[in-house]
Amino acid sequence: MKISKAIEERRSIRKFTSQTVDRSILLSLIRAGALAPSASNAQFWRFIVADNQDLVRKLDLYCPGMSGKPTAIIVIASDLEEVASKGSKNSIEYGCMMDASMAAENIILQALEFGLGTCVIKSYNDGAVRKLLGIPDTLRIEILISVGYPDGEPRERKRKDLDQILQWNGWNTSDTEGK
To answer: What is the reported pTM?
Structure first.
């Protein structure tokens, strides 16, 4: 699939079939995430994949942003001990989330190649997710991604026109000719 087609077709999926995702496919998604850009190539991210259906259902209870009963959940976390020893304050405050976001984008675009749907989740009960997955305090959960086979067609997404969000050569300039 061409990357432009993947970007155009990607949707946040919130309704999944009960068909489970093979671990080899989940591993391909994680490989894609691990190939994302990382500030100073530090790669502070850690990936935890839940594909046990009982565990996924329990996690779903503590993630109000999640819906549609996914069959897998990918957690992207940052290793704060490693950040403290090799990173900076900027890495802790911003870099880790930026890196996790770029990894998430790679994961969700790679998922399209396998016919999977995904939804990035930031609304979850941190303590409950940590307890269910045994995530230590040295890791900070950044993002959850629900994964599964879409049940039905996603609704049409709405986007603002570029003339509402784009400025050329500075804010509020009258440059529209690119000169």
So the answer is: 0.91
